[in-house]
């Protein structure tokens, strides 16, 4: 087993498949040297995953790598940015080559798919955790921010919501699950979120605001409302639910809807669209193969109101908070 | 005590003093949106500090923040880059407001000094550690890399070497130290390294290669030699030693020299200069107030040879390696 930090880094991280032309100097010097295209903003996002908090120690390192990268790429997607580069800070309890090899397998498979080049990072000894910083480009004036929603805009989400929380329940054995096919579907949805990279770029010039759902729809939509200084109404019966989620809830649609409202780590996009852009939206998204569902509307106010058939609901819900007891 | 992650982030990290004009959107959205000047490369570096490995749990959070930022800025300095932005991923065992307040005090003091804006990051719960990604600019063709050294180039280091290791010995009580003024000097040198940001920029167009000393002179010079495919000779009697280091070693210059060769976390620059640039070097550095000392010369070969009065020494030395037993 290699015991030298530099050997480890050189062996596993210098062999990446992606070589971008905008990377003048990658791993191996004090800094990477990079080229940002003229007329574009650089978009940057950082996410940490800590063992025992964000994932279990026995998680397959390949899935962990993919999920970490997906979570970061999802932030670029939510900005409408095109991914370009990633830095990886990896803290490991020991220089476990089998673990590293499997981690790199997953990491580079996803990096290759999205044409993202690893440009640097750090490998340190300590409790297992990883921090990724992804960077991408978005043409000037076309970034999807959280502060652009206006009263009257329609609220959409991509894909289905709630599967990730159901997958986590299966994983933690909180829910008995006798259907192995259903369990596998939900676990897969929890472990392998698909960042909506193409959909995010398709929303440039169409959506008035956007973010990705990492802490639960209600908590995340709250960020748009706060920063845009608006309120919202959500029709809970319009939330997109997978048949698998409803089956997982034993056919209890109400329970499934609650999961859809609060499930974190979905990495679907939540975005707002002015009425006059709704036609363009359908065309733009049809090219990406991503389904979007209208779940409500922005209104004057400061919070999200849940409704059913025009009647307000008084459900108590909360998002995910790392520091809550 | 605040228990909400978003409150914490908002309260402590959104109140930073630096507001750069090249930051279109900073903390609070999915990504930061940034502007890289035309004609410049973006330089990016990532460093992690893990409690128990890189620092002790009782370390003053303000000093920790400064040291982390200094270590990262040192990588930009070694590239000849001008610092611009930093992302901070902070993992904390608990939402300790006193700790966070003190951390931010140190962090923003140094960020302000170097005009570096915090553009984002992540706050997670777990074993104490932090990962910083700094970014800066360097004009096209002027970056100081590790692969440009040629046989005949002279080898320089900034400042004095060895103090950081001596300070660590004082800290760990490995060395009895009866002189409190000396102990304080060395501790300060260990805790508060000065990144050579201005010196690095002054070396553009003058140095043929450069890096910063984080793992010890011999280990780090080895990176230049490997990537430049050259060897080197170091005259050990030319190594710049502080009087305090020599005093710490009880007047034993030999012991001080060995510390200077292997001491990590010095964050001084080691660089090579072609003979015809030596005059320009003195002028350029005089404007920065940083002293540089010529310690040897690049030669054909593949490793560094230690000499004294032209005679080769057979000292056994090694650099710092996180994963060694």
UniProtKB/TrEMBL annotation, chains A, B:
ATP binds at residues 121-122, 146, 214. SUPFAM superfamilies: PurM C-terminal domain-like, PurM N-terminal domain-like. Mg(2+) 1 binds at residues 46-47, 122. Residues 28-138 form the PurM-like N-terminal domain. Mg(2+) 4 binds at residues 30, 45, 75. Residues 151-303 form the PurM-like C-terminal domain. Mg(2+) 2 binds at residues 47, 75. Pfam families: AIRS, AIRS_C. Mg(2+) 3 binds at residues 30, 75, 212. Its EC number is 2.7.4.16. GO terms for molecular function: ATP binding; magnesium ion binding; thiamine-phosphate kinase activity. Keywords: ATP-binding, Kinase, Magnesium, Metal-binding, Nucleotide-binding, Thiamine biosynthesis, Transferase. It catalyses: thiamine phosphate + ATP = thiamine diphosphate + ADP. Mg(2+) 5 binds at residue 215. It comes from the Bacteria. GO terms for biological process: thiamine biosynthetic process; thiamine diphosphate biosynthetic process. Pathway: Cofactor biosynthesis; thiamine diphosphate biosynthesis; thiamine diphosphate from thiamine phosphate: step 1/1. Substrate binds at residues 54, 265, 320. Belongs to the thiamine-monophosphate kinase family. Catalyzes the ATP-dependent phosphorylation of thiamine-monophosphate (TMP) to form thiamine-pyrophosphate (TPP), the active form of vitamin B1. Reaction mechanism of ThiL seems to utilize a direct, inline transfer of the gamma-phosphate of ATP to TMP rather than a phosphorylated enzyme intermediate. PANTHER family: THIAMINE-MONOPHOSPHATE KINASE. NCBIfam families: PRK05731.1-1, thiL. This is Thiamine-monophosphate kinase. It comes from Photobacterium halotolerans. The gene is thiL.
